[in-house]
Amino acid sequence: MRYVPWWVLFSSVCAPILLVGGWSVSAELEGPRYDPASSTISILAADGTRGYWVMTTALVALGVCHVVTACGLRPAAPFGRLALAGGGLSAMLLAFFPAPVSGGSFAHGVVVTVGFSLLALWPVLAARRQAQRPPGRLVPLSGGTVPWGLRPGPSVGATTVMWLGGAWFLLALFVLDIAGAAERVITFAQSFWPLVVVLSCARRIGGQEPGR
Fold this sequence. Notes:
single chain; mainly alpha; 7 helices; globular
């Protein structure tokens, strides 16, 4: 018996794998002309690049994973689930607003900013102080305790780290010339945190289902 459906665990595991796999394969297709330390992930999904289709597919799949996870993560507060789903939709929208090979794109920048903000806020918006009894055949945690990943302390900590990571990315982009490295760290963190939350919810407990 699980506190969340099995497909939520599957989608949350796939998210960071798809992200890392996408940028790794795309960078390999680009070859030595692409510097992963200084160049952003968005460049890999720009029109005309060799790895465009790989990175774009990975971003769309990542977005789908976040939406699926949000739909099934019933222990989380509703606003947090909406923010996670919104971050997933933003990732999918990047397929329609790719970054140019050179220069900037206002539309792309807006989508990236909105997506980052939603994924940075969702941990604290999803936090609960009291456990919620899931509907249907799902089994509540023993003792009715709030899963660790949805407690206020870890949730606020995760959101704080993500915003600090965003500030580091801006510094790396405009001053340090290591935007690619900074972006990889923060985007991986944002793709990995849903898995942490899901694992904290997916505890097995003994006994019969409620009502048996």
